[in-house]
Amino acid sequence: MRLNLCCGDDVRDGYINIDVRKTKPSVLVIDLEKDLLKPFPDNSADEIIARDCVEHISWRRVEDLLRDIHRVLRCSGRLYVQVPDLEAIAKKVILNPDFCYGDLCGWKAISFWVYGAQDYPENMHKTGFTIPTLKKLMESIGFEVETIQNDGGTNIICWCRKKC
Predict the structure, then answer these.
(1) How far apart are the C-alpha atoms of 128 and 86, rounded to whole Å?
(2) Strands 104-105 and 143-150, bridge-based pairing
(3) Gap between the Cα atoms of 114 and 126, Å rounded
(4) Fewer beta carbons within 10 angstroms: which end of the chain, N or C?
């Protein structure tokens, strides 16, 4: 079994696609912040994708969600996490406070990157990471971080594995 958390419109074949909204008929609606991965048994998933997901969970619940992901992954199961890189965003703001992203410039671009698109109620950022803070968090939960790096822009890409 493979899970695609916070999938939005990124519905993937071969995955159970999960989102807080019914974006497509095949999407399973779960409020991860409230219900975590309760419907799924221990050690049942080979892979979990959390792309543009964890930052939408309250900083008060992120560790709970990551512990539940760890619970659901099988021994040596893999987790992919993509989150905004607050260090990269801060550098952009400091070096060029009027930087643009599409038609958003200055404070609007900064607000988009730090606080999310806010184009529907659940689409706001509630937590933030740098590479060192995300790595430390993942290791504290019991993951072995395989790779963690900036994607060349404003995101952190992290592949990790459940330690057995």
Answers:
(1) 6
(2) unpaired
(3) 9
(4) C
Q: Report the Cα–Cα distance between both ends of the chain, in Å, rounded.
A: 18
What would the 3-class secondary structure string for the chain be?
CEEEECCCCCCCCCCEEEECCCCCCCCEECCHHHHCCCCCCCCCEEEEEEECCHHHCCCCCHHHHHHHHHHHEEEEEEEEEEEEEHHHHHHHHHHCCCCEECCEECHHHHHHHHHCCCCCCCCCCCCCECHHHHHHHHHHHCEEEEEEEECCCCEEEEEEEECC
Average pLDDT over residues 157-163: 97
- What fold, for 2-84+123-162? Rossmann fold (3.40.50)
Q: What is the pTM of this model?
A: 0.94
Average pLDDT value for residue range 100-120: 92
Both tokens assigned to 150: 């900036």
Examine the pLDDT at 92 and tell me if it is beyond 90. Answer: no
Inter-residue contact 75 to 162 (CB < 8 Å): yes
Contact of 77 with 50, CB cutoff 8 Å: no
Per-residue pLDDT at 18: 98
pLDDT (average), residues 81-107: 92
